Amino acid sequence: MTLAATPKIELHLHLEGAAPPAFIRGLAAEKREDISGIFDERGGYAIRDFWHFLKVYEAATSVIRSPEDYRRLTLAVLEESAASGVIYCETFISPDFCGGRDLVAWRDYLAAIEDAAAEAEAKMGVTLRAIVTPIRHFGPEKAREVAICAAETAGRFVTGFGIGGDERVGEPEDYAWAFDCAREAGLGITAHAGEWRGPDHIRATLRALRPSRLGHGVRAIEDLALVDELAERGTVLEVCPGSNIALGLYSDWRHHPIGKLFDREVKVTVSTDDPPFFRTTMNREWDRLADAFDWDTGVFATLNKTALDAAFCDRDTKDMIAKKLEAAHG
Ligand SMILES: [Zn+2]
């Protein structure tokens, strides 16, 4: 079986950040909003550097507003996932953008997203679960409100809690209340750390928020004692190599630390983060990794297994996905 045809599991995908450019262009046209400046001549997002990326991201996502917009966005995103062979995906969604942290409004957005997920599962064979995330740079107070929205809607679809946004703002312990609230509601815990800040921030995050997974976490490589600690604890890294390379964290695929982390027995998984902004897909990530590290299908089967073990969904869903993987990997 070719890599492209192999079923894949993705744990780290921002729903708005996965919006296909054509979808955003169409939505902007319907709303008569001119955001043509964010596209390049080929119709993709035009990104120059990290700061420009944030600007383009903000402009693109500003046109996604109503629950109906989110329903259509979810379908458009899952179509792309299915095209890369993704059979199970966890996506970050935020009450900050979906209803301004109002619980009643949040339920409406969630219903629309879940409705699209059910449709995509029936039509395209891709299963979606949601990780609710406050935006770090909006501050701890708003994170508490987000955690309450997450706790109130925890269940089969909302299965996790994380934190995104600017990693350089605030300290992990500022958000401990929100994470404790989510954990008590039975949600799986992940946190972005070790992308824009180094090993000390990863340690502080592990201590204060007690996540079973880290978003990125790759800068652990700067401290091998921490790498060994991650391996020992079994902390799972949601690694997004194409995103890191596009944003200039590493110069190229061969210099990305995922190879070393894998060799030192850290539990790594592979995701796309905000794929169209970084001109990537799950197929492209797997292809580049196979080239850079000579990884064969056995390694990718291991990545899939690690990702499924670390997934926040219920047992029935895991069993269903495991059967699909078994059929593919033999
Ligand atoms: Zn991310």
From TrEMBL:
Its cofactor is Zn(2+). The keyword Zinc applies. Signal peptide: none annotated. GO terms for molecular function: deaminase activity; hydrolase activity, acting on carbon-nitrogen (but not peptide) bonds, in cyclic amidines; metal ion binding. Residues 7-326 form the Adenosine deaminase domain. Keywords: Hydrolase, Metal-binding, Zinc. It comes from the Bacteria. The keyword Zinc applies. InterPro entries: A_deaminase_dom, Ado/ade_deaminase, Metal_Hydrolase. SUPFAM superfamilies: Metallo-dependent hydrolases. Belongs to the metallo-dependent hydrolases superfamily. Adenosine and AMP deaminases family. This is Adenosine deaminase.
